[in-house]
Amino acid sequence: MLLTVLKSRNMPSLYAVESSKASRGAIISADGFHLATTKKLYKAVVDTRYIDPQKRELFIKLFNIYSGISIKQIRKRLSKRRGVVVLSYNVEEIQSHYLKKLAHELRRFKVFLSLKSPRTGLRSVHGLSVIESGESREYPYGKLLTPILGYPHKIEEDGFTFVKGVKGLEKRWDAELSPRQDGYSRGKRDVNSYIILNKESFTKPKINGLSIKLTIPVAFQIKIENMLDKMKIELRAKEVMLAVMNSKTGRVLAMASSNRYFPKAIKRSDYPSLNSNMIEYSFEPGSVLKPITFSLLLEHKLVNPYELVNGHGGRYRIGRKVITDEHRFHWLSAENVIVYSSNVGMAQLSQKLSGYQFNNGLKQFGFGKKSTPDLIYERTGYVPTQQRLNNEIYKATCSYGYGIRVNLMQLMRAYDVFNNNGVMVYPRIVDAFIDDQGQEKKLEQLDTVQVLPSAVAQRVKKILIKTVNKGTGKKTIIKGLQIGGKTGTAHTVEKGKYVNKYNTTFMGFVNDKKHHYTMGVVVIQPQKSQYAAQTAVPVFKKAVEIMIEDGYLKPDIIQ
Question: pTM for this one?
Fold first, then answer.
C-alpha cells in the first residue's frame, strides 16, 4: 500500500490535440481544368510485437483487401524485422479512411495483444496506425503545357514530405502556391479522446496555398501541341515553338513547344526540354527584325515608304562586308524592301539612323528586357550598344536581324505594337489567384507603353499585310481574315562561328472584325528547308485554322 501511494502514477492526459497539414495550391487552366494538383499521402504503420500470432493471417488478409497490396508483399514486410514496420508509404487519402476503419475493426476483433511496457510497467495496445506522411504533385494531363508549368522536387522535413517549385510556373509562383498555415486544435477530451469544442478549446484553421488560374484554355493548347508534334516530324526540326496572345490585353491563348516532358517522371533524355525555350532560348531573328528597323526610320521621318532604293543586283559592299539578297533587285520602293525582304535595301536605309536612335529604339520595343513577369529564368538576349551601332557594318547587319539576340516572347511583344496602334502590352499567362473559399483575385494590369505613334504603327501594319498578300508570307492567306507578318531566316552560331544550320521564324497577327491576335512561330534547325516560307509559315497557317475551328476567329466571307 505504501508503494502504491508513493509511486508516481501515469495518468492519461485530460487534453487532446489534433493537427492537419495545409496543401499546395493548384494550377488551373482558363477553362477550369486542373493541370497541377496536390495529393495527400499517408503511411500505414504497425508494430509486429503486438500482433496476435494466432490472428496474424487474418491481419494479412484484411490488410490485403483494404490496401490492395499483395499478400506476398505484406508477409515480406512483416518478416523483415520485429517491431515498427511501415507497410506502405503511398496510401492515398480515400484509402487512408478505409484503413483507419480497418484499424478500428482489428482492435474490435482483438487482433492486437495488450503488452506490458518494461520501462513503465503499464499495459498498452499498439495497433495499425495511418499517419499523414506528405504530399505528391500530380499532373493529370501528363505533358500538357510543359515546360511552361515546370516541375517541383521533394523536400523532407520532420518526417513529412512536401514539394517546392524548381522550374516554370511552379518556381515563379512558389511563394503563392505554398501552404499558408497548418491546422491545429487543442482542448479537453471526451471519453473517446475527441476534442470538446468550447470556449476553452483553441483552434487554428488550415490555410492552403493559393491556386493559380491561367489565361490558357486546355482544349486549344492540346490541339496546338498535337499540331506542333506533327510539324516537328514533317520539318525534321530540333524544336517547333508557337505562342498566341490577345493583341489588346496581352492574355496568352497558347504557349506551346514540340519538346515536352512528364513532370512526374523526368528522364535523362528530357533534360534538353526542361527549359521554357519561348523565353530561355535567345537567337538571332533574321529578317523579322526588318519591320522594326523600318518603323524606327518612319518614326524619325528618315524615310518615305515610296522612295526608291537601289537593289544593286543583289550584292552590296559596305567596307569589307558584302551583303547579298536571295532574290536580285535593281530598284525597290522603301516599303517593298520589307515586302520582298531585301537585305541590301535594308542595309542602306538603316544608315540613316544614328547609333543612339537605333539602340534606344530597339530597347523601346522591349529587346534586352524581360518580356513577361509570369515566368522565371528568362534570357533577355543582347542589344548592340550605341557605339557599336554607329559602325555602318554593325548597323547594316543588325537592321536585318544579325548581331542581336532575342527570344520568341520578346518578338511577340514587339510585333504586337503594330497590331495595337503603337501600344506595347506585356504577355500575361497568369490571370488570377483563387483562395480556399473559391474567391478570385485578378492580377493587376501592367502599364502599357506607347512605343510608336499610332500613324507609324498603322503604316507598318499595312506593309506587313502587303508582305503576306504579295511577298514572303503568301502561304498564310485565309479569305475573310486580316493577316500580316514577316518571315525570318538566320544562321545559328556554334562555338562563336556561324554554321550551316538555320532557325526560321514567322511573326505576325491575325484579325477578324472583333478579335485581334498576335502570333509567333520559331522553328529551330529544320532540315526539310532553310526557308521560313516553307517551315514557319505552314505552322502559322495551321494554328490559324485551329483558331477558326475552335471559334476564336470568324472569317468574314461574303457569299
Answer: 0.86
